[in-house]
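Milestone 3.1: sequence recovery, worked example.
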């Protein structure tokens, strides 16, 4: 029996879990040898370890880390895996998820990846071993083994923050390219033609890179010259905004407007401009993304794209709970959209 037949048999029987015996058959060894290869690899040969690892990867095997009966039923724990807790983007989403899950009698288990997809894959392996009732992940990009494992798992999975037409299971988020296009279009409509994009951590935060893609598309469609892309490799912070303002003001020709990848960076720009006596938007217009409360209290008020983060968390939890109750959600993919909030910064 090949790996595809084993996965299909598991799904048909409703168990959603590949067993140690399945791995043993795939690798052509005894179950006790598989156990040794996974738990005490020094007790088996390199050749056997390689065969077992290949079988584990092919079948998507996850070891049971709790008692068999409880593992079969699933615990009332929902892991939520996000890139970082240092970025305000995720705090309101997580809070809403936790409140909705706790109201339904479930507990949230929180883990962070530090934007590392390999770390995410390792975390998924670990949390599935504790037989959670479902999983909530961030984004739609994952290592292939994460996607195949969760699709074969048989329990509800919700991906948040980003929206697309091919989720693992269910999906609640926003269109990153559309976000970037909308802010750049607003700046163009305001009469700015030389617009720069200020991004942070773009190599890891690919959703910010999607907003850059949308920004560039809008400029190309309008025949406007790109005012440059300023990329900072560390995560978003007010300090990044301070540095961005210095770098922008030193550019020749200087951009008329900057499109910041989020409100945190944009707020740093506005605060630094106020200290330095740089007039916003007369000397430099500034746009952001997120709709953070701070944006409303800056001088001038920041123009931003607001996303319903709490609603995103609530809907993600409700999708998962609906599936756990045996129902099939009518709309398993949900684009929450965004709102342009115009402030004095543009």
């Amino acid at each position: 029996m090949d790996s595809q037949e084993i996965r299909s048999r598991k799904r048909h029987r409703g168990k959603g879990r590949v067993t140690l015996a399945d791995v043993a058959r795939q690798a052509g060894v005894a179950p006790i040898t598989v156990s040794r290869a996974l738990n005490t690899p020094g007790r088996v040969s390199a050749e056997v370890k390689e065969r077992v690892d290949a079988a584990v990867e092919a079948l998507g095997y996850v070891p049971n880390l709790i008692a068999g009966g409880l593992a079969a039923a699933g615990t009332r724990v929902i892991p939520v895996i996000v890139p970082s807790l240092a970025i305000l983007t995720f705090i309101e989403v997580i809070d809403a998820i936790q409140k909705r899950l706790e109201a339904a009698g479930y507990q949230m288990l929180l883990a962070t990846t530090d934007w590392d997809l390999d770390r995410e894959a390792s975390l998924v392996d670990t949390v599935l071993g504790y037989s959670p009732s479902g999983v909530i992940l961030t984004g739609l990009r994952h290592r292939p083994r994460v996607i195949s494992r969760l699709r074969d798992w048989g329990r509800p999975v919700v991906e948040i923050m980003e929206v697309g037409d091919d989720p693992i299971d269910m999906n609640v988020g926003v269109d990153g390219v559309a976000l970037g296009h909308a802010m750049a279009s607003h700046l163009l409509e305001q009469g700015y033609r030389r617009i720069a994009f200020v991004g942070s951590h773009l190599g890891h935060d690919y959703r910010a890179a999607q907003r850059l893609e949308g920004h560039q598309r809008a400029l190309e469609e309008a025949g406007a010259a790109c005012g440059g892309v300023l990329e900072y490799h560390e995560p978003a912070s007010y300090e990044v905004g301070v540095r961005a303002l210095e770098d922008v003001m030193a550019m020749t020709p200087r951009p008329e407007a900057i499109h910041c990848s989020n409100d945190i960076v944009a707020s740093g720009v506005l605060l630094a401009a106020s200290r330095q006596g740089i007039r916003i938007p007369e000397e430099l217009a500034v746009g952001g993304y997120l709709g953070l409360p701070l944006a409303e209290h800056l001088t001038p008020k920041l123009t931003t794209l607001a996303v319903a983060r709490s609603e995103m968390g609530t809907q993600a939890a409700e999708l998962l709970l609906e599936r756990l109750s045996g129902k099939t959600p009518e709309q398993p993919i949900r684009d929450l959209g965004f709102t342009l909030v115009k402030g004095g910064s543009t």
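The mean pLDDT is 89. The chain is about 45% helix and 15% strand.
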